[in-house]
């Protein structure tokens, strides 16, 4: 089943853990905070994450010290 994700930027401390764990999904924005970049999602939570990337997403969620990565089974917007 596909997953969708967003980063709550107000909670992000820019530690880089998510990008190190799942670089295909997360990177830093111009302000240095994490965001979802998978296929141009622009942190909207509308791009389906499937296959091997689901495991990487789950590892990124577990590694986030502030729990600012939100995951759902339906698109956020």
From TrEMBL:
Protein name (Swiss-Prot/TrEMBL): Ferredoxin
Q: Which organism is it from?
A: Paenibacillus mesotrionivorans
